[in-house]
Structures are given as C-alpha cells and as structure tokens.
Design a protein that fits this description.
The chain has helices spanning 29-36, 93-105, 115-122, 128-139, 143-153, 156-179, 188-210, 212-220, 234-244, 285-300, 316-323, 345-352, 368-380, 399-420, 425-443, 449-457, and strands at residues 7-10, 17-25, 37-39, 51-57, 64-73, 84-91, 109-110, 222-227, 247-252, 259-266, 269-274, 303-309, 330-335, 358-359. The chain is an alpha/beta fold. A hairpin with a 6-residue loop joins β1 (7-10) and β2. α7 packs antiparallel against α14. The protein is flat. The two termini are 18 Å apart. It binds guanosine-5'-diphosphate (GDP). Guanosine-5'-diphosphate is lined by residues 228, 230-236, 335-336, 338-339, 361-363.
C-alpha cells in the first residue's frame, strides 16, 4: 500500500512559466537533491523551511543546468509528512524536465498521479475528504466552489461525519452490551430509546446527504446546452452570460475535434456550456459532426436554454427545437425583444407547455436579471442562493460522499426495522457496523486500496 521510497515530479503545469518546481518526497529527498544542487554558500546542516540559492547541475557531467532555489521541509512538517525538497528553477518545459531527469537519475522514482497527496493521507496529514478537497480547490469553477472546497479542506465535512460516527458508536456499544447477555431481552424502555435515537440519527444523516443537491452544483457546475435555430442569438447569449462575470474556457478532447467547454458563473451558479452547433439538418460532413455533438450535449445537459427569435416568425426549425425539449429542465428564452415583435409570446408558451418565457435582449442585456433568477431557481430550487455558513453546516459535494451517506442511511433504516421487529441485538448490530463502515469511508477511516485508487486517480502528477 505504501512503499517508503523517494518520489519526484514536476509540480507546476506543463509549458512555459515564471518558475517550475520539481518536488521530491521521501527519506532520500535531501540526499538526492544535494546531488543536483550546488549551494552558493555551503549550509550544514540544511535548515528546514528555508530557501537556499544555488546552481542546479547535471550530476553526471557536473555541467550547470540553471540557477535557482532549494527548500527542504523536514518530516513531519511537510505536505506529505515525509522529507520534501522542492527545487525552483526557471519555468521552461525542457529545463524542468532535465532537472527532473537529473533527480530521477539519483534514485528517486517518478511519482504516480496524486501520490504526494496519497502519502499525505497515509501519513495522517489529511483525511480522505480533505485530500479530495485539495483537488476541488484546484478545479474550482466558481467562488462558491472555492469556498466549499476550502471548508472541506479545513475539515468541516470531516467534523460532521466524525460527530455522526461518534453517536453511532455510542448506540452500537449500548446495543452490544445486550449481546453479552443473550438470555436478557432488551428492556422495553431501552428499546424505545434506542429506536428513537436511531430515528434522530437517520434524519441527521439524511439532511447531510440532502446538501448534495447544492454542493454538486457548486463543485461541478450545471451542464447546460444553449439551443435554437441559427441566428437566434445563442452566441450572443453566451457572450452576455460570460461577460456578466467571467468565463473559463477548457478544451475537452472529443472524438472528432476538441469541444470547447465554457464555464460561466451566473448568479453564483457555475454553468458548464458547450460550444453547441445548431440542430438543423446537416448539409455536409462538418455540419453533421456539429449536429451530432449538439445532440450528445443535449442528451447530457441538466439545463437547457432554448432560444427563440422575437423578430422572426416561428417556423419549422423552431418547431424542431421544441421537439428536442421533452423531459428536460428548460428555460425558454425569447431573444431580440429590442426589435419589433413578430412572435406572439402566449402562443409560443402554449406550444412549449413549459415555464414562462424569459424576455431578453442579448444585445442590450435587458432581461438578464430575470434570466439569472430563473437559472438560480432551476438549479438551486428554493434553497438559499449560497449555503455558506448555514448553521455552520457541512456540505456534501461529491458523489462518493453522497453514496456513502445513502448506504449509511439504508443500514440504519434496516437496523431500525429490525429493532422494532424484535430481531436479536447481534443481528441489529451487524447493520450498525455496516453503517459505521460506510460513514467511515468518507474520511478514509475505513478505506480499501480500491477506494484510494479511485480517489487519487483523478489527481494530476505532481500533486
Ligand atoms: P446564433 O447563430 O444563434 O449563435 O446567433 P448570434 O448570437 O450569432 O446572433 C445572430 C445575429 O443576431 C447577430 O447579428 C447578433 O448581433 C444579432 N442579435 C443577437 N441577439 C440580439 C438581440 O438581442 N437584439 C438584436 N437586435 N440583435 C441580436
């Protein structure tokens, strides 16, 4: 599970930049680093958490590669809990790879994705939900997503799970006291109290689980498709949304060519929007690919902004758009309301049999406020716009955590039913132990190699 060797990787993103950092962690970190770094003023011993200036060399030829900084963070006061050395060189991609190669040639092993954080977990520097929060901080799409990740890293979710687990442990211990005396039935009063306490616990785990609907929105964003016939103003709408706060554009490798995914934050809600082509009948291969992508996007979309043109008559193409909207969460938008109205809004609403239209001018921004409200309603429902600080409560934002809580509740419900039906206490205890295991999976109190692999596979190399 944990090979105590020394690992190394480039911790900064690939490409050119101001600096690149080569990170080395493990018992040999200092020895390895001293082979590739020549200090300007020989320090002995090397002090922890202090920067030193010097030259980085190729240890085989002794020829200089660069000049830079070295910092040693001695165990246990480091990210991984092991000795860590970071070498800061100029941020060139060839240069940083040469420095890494030099480090690897001295006996360090190339780190696997997330291995530094995995070691931090295995050394008790972070629990599992905090390790995941590190990734969430890096990948956050909105300010709210950032604060959520930060709260989780600071241990809010861990504390909530620990408190629930503690209550469950007390309950289990109480029940197990009766197992030791099988000839005694559980006294009726104790049984009622136990059943009551179990019900309260179920309700509390359930309400933690229910925070997922919001947590997910802030962590992952809402997959959103903007659809409509050509020239209704889909790109203009996207630009309006992007301009209102900010946009992060990410290239997602597709099968045919890269698909651009843009995250726009609107009213605090991150919307992950694809560059969707129209849904018209394709006339050539390029269009066919575009339409296919649009359809795939639409299938996966959690929210659809269906755009109609107020200045042109409703036509067959609009009808085709309407046909795509079945069983989807749709906000219909009537765009170009700054132009003379040709479409009769009540007719369109009748046809859509959906939510009322949002009247918008993507050109002037009229109606943006209303659209923002509708997006918040559709994604966050009646809950407050941002949950931060709500009774100091923790928020669940990952499917893994939600699933563990759901299983915990199932086990607790089973235990509760068994208790009421007078099933022997040792059988009830089996369900309580299963519940303890499931809630323990969130923080890694209970973990298997399989769980760890799944968690750390998501990380990049060097983190
Ligand atoms: P798309 O093909 O659906 O992406 O449409 P575009 O966003 O490219 O817009 C098509 C044309 O409509 C462009 O000339 C825009 O400037 C214009 N347009 C978009 N929104 C509005 C609007 O609200 N009012 C007016 N007057 N023109 C608009």
């Amino acid at each position: 599970m944990y090979e105590r060797d020394t690992i190394a990787a480039i911790a900064t993103p690939p490409g050119q930049g101001g600096v690149a950092i080569i990170r080395v962690s493990g018992p040999q970190a200092e020895i390895v680093a001293r082979q590739v770094f020549v200090f300007s003023h020989s320090p002995d011993p090397l002090l922890s958490h202090r920067f030193y200036f010097g030259r980085i060399i190729d240890p085989l030829t002794r020829s200089p590669l660069d000049q830079g900084l070295l910092v040693l963070m001695r165990s246990p006061q480091s990210y991984t809990g092991e000795d860590i050395v970071e070498i800061h060189c100029h941020g060139g991609s060839l240069l940083s790879r040469r420095v890494l190669t030099a480090v690897l040639a001295q006996g360090a092993r190339f780190a696997t994705p997330g291995e530094f954080t995995k070691r931090a977990f295995l050394n008790g520097r972070l629990d599992l939900s905090q390790a995941e929060a590190v990734l969430d901080l890096i990948q956050a799409k909105s300010d709210q997503g950032l604060s959520l990740a930060w709260e989780q890293l600071a241990g809010r979710l861990s504390a909530a799970c620990a408190a629930l687990r503690e209550r469950l442990l007390v309950l289990t211990a109480y029940l197990e006291a009766f197992i030791d005396f099988p000839e005694d039935d559980i006294p009726e009063r104790s049984q009622t109290e136990l059943a009551h306490e179990l019900q309260v616990l179920i309700a509390d785990v359930d309400s933690l689980c229910a925070t997922f609907s919001q947590g997910k929105v802030y962590r992952e964003g809402i997959r959103t498709a903007i659809i409509g016939k050509p020239n209704v103003g889909k790109s203009s709408l996207l630009n309006l949304l992007a301009g209102s706060e900010r946009a992060i554009v990410t290239a997602v490798p597709g099968t045919t060519r890269d698909v651009l995914e843009e995250t726009v934050v609107i009213g605090g809600v991150p919307l992950v929007v694809w560059d969707t082509a129209g849904l018209r009948h394709p006339t050539d291969e390029v269009e066919r690919i575009g339409v296919e992508r649009a359809r795939a996007g639409l299938r996966e979309a959690e929210l659809v902004l269906a755009v109609f043109d107020a200045s042109r008559p409703f036509d067959e193409e609009d009808k085709a758009v309407c046909a795509e909207l079945v069983a989807k969460s749709v906000i219909p938008v009537l765009n170009k309301i700054d132009l003379p109205l040709v479409v009769h809004p009540p007719d369109l609403e009748k046809r859509l049999r959906a939510e009322p239209l949002v009247h918008l001018s993507a050109k002037s921004g009229i109606g943006l406020e209303k659209l923002t409200e509708r997006i918040q309603q559709a994604t966050l429902g009646t809950q407050s716009v941002f949950i931060e600080g709500q009774d100091g409560g923790a928020i669940v934002s990952r499917v893994r955590h939600r699933d563990a809580l759901t299983k915990t509740v199932q086990n607790l419900r089973q235990a509760s039913t068994s208790l009421i039906e007078g099933v022997p206490p040792d059988l009830v205890a089996v369900d309580l132990h299963a519940a303890l295991d499931h809630i323990g999976e969130i923080t890694g109190h209970v973990s298997t190699e399989d769980i760890l692999d799944k968690v750390f596979r998501e990380f990049c190399i060097g983190k």
